[in-house]
Amino acid sequence: MPIVDGKSFIYTVKQGDTLYSIASRIGGTVPLLVEANAIYPPFTDPYLIFPGQVLVISTPGNRQVNHIISSEDTLNQIAGRYSTSVDLLQGINPQFTNPDLINPNQVLHVTAFIYLVEQGDTLNQIAQRFGLPLSTIIEANRQRPGFSPDVILPGYQLIIPIPTSNNIVVFNPLPGTMIEEEQNLEGFARAFEGVILYRLVDQNGQIVTAEAPIQTSAGAPQYGAFSTSIAFEQQPTSQTGELWVYTRSPRDGSIQDLVRLFVKF
């Protein structure tokens, strides 16, 4: 699956910007910026960008999506774009201690990945592939040049939000990707005593992994990182299923903060 495996930046064009100045300052190349954001006819004149447009800029590095804060941004607006919460954004970016004090050009790690559009893709197909509502993908890509819910072209780089709860995000595996035994399960969580749980179920209801605990690096009110190796207790009986990551209420044992990821076997 063509997921961009590098460090990507989400950047809002400012007055006076050119593709060359953006590439020189942030990274990438002008031809890649043109293709990744469809800055060509029939969408626009070649190489023509306008203030307020949102660009994806992909560079080498470990897979991570970073939002470069613009003068118009608030943390609430940024959280809305990526279908997550301000609490969680602050939790995975501890340098942002006050949601009302953010400055242009600061870099915020966000809950998303970048998908490289292939020949024959439609937005509906992509949403189904990752088990996401179409509206979340549309919201994440608003104000982008060359973006239309009806037509997307090969080579375009789509911003895909990662499902989260208010207190949990899973960065590995990504939704809609292949999951294997002993694969790492990684992310961040805010939980009582730092304990969260996961389980894996296939499409036929077969429990592949029964409820198992994970210890995070910090307990609430902090967000802690977590990483564990996924163990299969039963072999999957279908090609798809769901990974659940969650907590349980210390009062009544009910499931809380559930994150459900569509996965493949």
From TrEMBL:
UniProt xrefs under Pfam families: Gmad2, LysM
Segment forming the signal sequence: none
Top-level division of the source organism's lineage: Bacteria
SUPFAM superfamilies registered for this protein in UniProt: LysM domain
Entry-linked InterPro entries: Gmad2_Ig-like_dom (IPR018911), LysM (IPR018392), LysM_dom_sf (IPR036779)
Domain LysM: 9-57, 65-110, 113-160
Single GO MF annotation: lytic endotransglycosylase activity
PROSITE patterns: LYSM
PANTHER family reported in the protein's UniProt record: LYSM DOMAIN-CONTAINING GPI-ANCHORED PROTEIN 2, MEMBRANE-BOUND LYTIC MUREIN TRANSGLYCOSYLASE D
Protein name as catalogued: LysM peptidoglycan-binding domain-containing protein
UniProt source species: Salinibacillus xinjiangensis
